UniProtKB/TrEMBL annotation:
Coiled coil: none annotated. One of its GO terms (molecular function) is ATP binding. It comes from the Bacteria. This is Putative ABC transport system ATP-binding protein. It is a peripheral membrane protein.
Length: 264
């Protein structure tokens, strides 16, 4: 279980640039939970992701995995337990390395020190099998440099690589937002399949309201550093984009200000 307790984060405290990013966030993710996260601009969604993955430390509060507090653990030490896919397709893979080499690197992340990047025949067969599951022919382009792939292909590869070692938590940071609708649809359905097949505990930030409603078993809405709405699987079934926007207005007293919002 992943637990975020009483996490607060303030940027530039005591200056004119002071920004409240998170205020006393409490969130428990049970194994296999797939939570979608929506919210206004600057609500704190990315900061929450950054604190879970260890890119930033909170001012107060803790992050723990299965009862073990990891708040002070550096990012590279958590990499084995945490998978993350970013919005930018360039972010998750090494462009000058081949698909095979990228996969070997991702595989290594889950191994003890001393494991060589060299790819054995058996491992290559596993990689190919995994790639074939994506259904976009990447298994036939094993020696192609990743920089030559399209944005959608790179996101598919990033997704596969970040779930390779069955992370304790998968963080999806608007990972379909930079893609055209057809590619976004492909990555969304791959995400659903991988998460379901591996029972991955997942936190997904999205600006696509329909996607937030459709995917996962729980939805949270953030505003000004707080979680202002937490919808369970049962309530989620009856949710519509209209109702969701109405809820935001009712709770925050404002219309949802999100310059990237996609209604569906
Ligand atoms: N490194 C930083 N330095 C200073 N302020 C920051 C930093 N990162 C985030 N902030 C501020 O903290 C607040 C929360 O930002 P965050 O990026 O977490 O929000 P978000 O919900 O991801 O927003 P968006 O949907 O617009 O990307 C904002 O006011 C933002 O300006």
């Amino acid at each position: 279980m992943i637990e975020i307790s009483k996490v607060s984060k303030l940027f530039n405290p005591g200056t004119v640039d002071e920004k409240i990013a998170l205020i006393g966030i409490n969130l428990k993710l049970n194994p296999g939970d797939f939570i979608t996260v929506i919210g206004s601009n600057g609500a704190g969604k990315s900061t929450l992701m950054n604190i879970i993955s260890g890119v930033m430390k909170p001012d107060t509060g803790d992050v723990s995995i299965d009862g073990r507090v990891i708040t002070q653990q550096p990012e590279h030490r958590r990499a084995r337990w945490i998978g993350r896919v970013f919005q930018d397709p360039m972010a998750g893979t090494a462009p000058n390395m081949t698909i095979e080499e990228n996969m070997a690197m991702a595989y290594k992340r889950g191994q003890a020190r001393g494991f060589q990047i060299g790819v054995t025949k058996a491992r290559r067969a596993i990689f190919k099998e995994q790639l074939a599951k994506l259904g976009i022919g990447l298994e036939n382009r094993f020696k192609a440099k990743v920089g030559l792939l399209s944005g959608g292909e790179r996101q598919a590869l990033s997704l596969l690589m970040s779930t390779f070692t069955k992370p304790q938590i998968l963080l999806l940071d608007e990972h379909t937002a930079a893609l055209d609708p057809a590619r976004a649809e492909l990555i969304t359905s791959l995400t659903e399949t991988l998460v379901r097949e591996m029972s991955l505990t997942t936190l997904m930030v999205t600006h696509n309201m329909e996607q937030a409603i459709k995917l996962g078993n729980r939805l949270i809405m953030m505003d000004k550093g707080r979680i202002i709405l937490d919808v369970d699987a049962k309530q989620k079934k009856d949710l519509t984009v209209e109702r969701l926007l109405g809820e935001f207005e009712r709770i925050s007293g404002r219309k949802l200000a999100d310059d990237r919002v996609v209604l569906g």
